[in-house]
Amino acid sequence: MYPRPIPETARSARAAYIALVVAVLILWLLPLVTVMLTSLRSFEEVMAGNYWGWPKSFNFVENYTAVFKQTALARYFVNSLIITLPSVVGVLVLSTLTGYVLSRHRFPGNRLVFALFVGGNFLPAQIMMIPVRDLMVGVGLYDTYFALIIFHTAFQTGFATLFMRNFIAALPDELFQAARAEGASPWQTLWHVVVPLIRPALAALAILTFTFVWNDYFWAIVLTQSDAVKPVTAGLNNLRGEWTSAWNLVAAATIMVAIPPVAMFFMMQRHFIAGLTMGAVKG
Amino acid sequence: MSQFWRRHRHWLAPTLFILPGALLFGIVIILASVQTIWVSFFDWDGVGPMQWVGLANYEQLAADPQFYTSLKNNVIWLVMFMLAPPLGLALALLLNQAIAGMKFLKSLFFVPLVLASVTVGVVFTWVYDPTFGLLSLIYGWFGATAPALLSDEHLVSFAVVIAALWPQIAFCLVLFLAGLNNLNEDLIGAGRVDGARGFAMLLHVVLPQLREVSFIALAVTVIGALRSFDMVAVMTSGGPFGSSTVLAYQMYEQSIFSYRFGYGAAIATVLFAIMAVFIAWYLRTLLRPEQETA
Fold first, then answer.
1. Residue A122: what are its φ and ψ, rounded to 5°?
2. Domain A70-281, CATH among 2.60.40.1670, 3.60.21.10, 1.10.1040.10, 1.10.3720.10
């Protein structure tokens, strides 16, 4: 290991090390922690200008119910779920199919198709903004859930294809030879050989796609307009404009927006890290 | 029919498998991107008929001072973002110890990575607030007055980039921790035997093994810097007086707020051209090792 591990016997060195890490961590997360604290403050305290000190009173229940009752946050929250979950499912299905074909079937143009998926994934959103918006307006989907679901499914399929192709390409060749020897059709091979083996990849992709789609802001403001379909990211920015002085409530809303991806991350951390580093590293 | 299927399924089935994903991605992402280049040769308000103007949008762009402000800010983003890989590596070196509790502490360090950029923007807007912000508090301890970073046209871009660096450093941290976990123990051991330690070890034994990870961290950081939009939109809306716009934001503003879709498309095309260089470089490196083995 590098740096050299601190030996178990060096108790005081270990204690000092942990103390140092915790100190750096507090500095690192300071902005977020203070927002959390502010989400608990009373309105009077905020008006009095105590934003960064220890809260004088804790108003967890009041503030968080207020944010759901007095603002459209609950609506935005539901919207985000309605947009994110189908997109994740769509991406998993499409990328399993594309990844399987691109990794296990040779055909002219295979590399080109793969390069387009990977390259397209790095394009700036603005290069496709006008035609995508125009397309959604044209087919009557602008300002509906479908506009965002379709776009996110399409865009995330790029990264997911890179990921799936590499994962399936790394599976042992013998399995596929055996399947061929048994006379299995491509569909049978996919269903009985590939799908059972790619569960970890599916889990990693699910959590990554969830985070990417949930956190999207650009497409939320380009493809939606009304509160009835707007996801939380765009909604939060609206709330911030409307509730400028109620920092405690905006802080509570900010924390609420952050909770789903952070919770998902902690629940599936291993998959998240594996996905991020494999998608990036194993290329 | 079934006989036809049986005879041809070895290529028909894969074609059917890849079609939905390829069509969707091809139309919504690739075709749309190409179409933008086409739109950039027109004068268009987004609703009415399109008027062919040739290169007029680009000529206008070349004379637009706002374009140069955006370009300059994109360079500021790019240069400052280069801090993310080394800082991520430094954090990774600090955290790479297998001690009880470190796993949990490490994952807390990753949190900024999963936050929405809107969240990061909102949080840092408060940090920078000139009257109530954390920064003004810190300045206050020293009896000084904090600069109003987000309304100072010379400092605003730097302030926004620093906020954006937070999740980017976390991203690099994740990559480098994974890289440090995959180090070749034999080489490290050999280095130790040869008396390499500390910085010399890092430079001559560890870093060469982190080449691939460093490349990814660098590439992702460059592309992330050029793609920056959310933080500018949330923290400053390009202000004050357009001093913090980047190409991505200027494009959005010109199209959505000023209904100049052709002009917006031209800005997007320029941004795309700049990024294409990096994307091509990344793709080449990414796909090359396979070509050798294939």
1. -100, 0
2. 1.10.3720.10
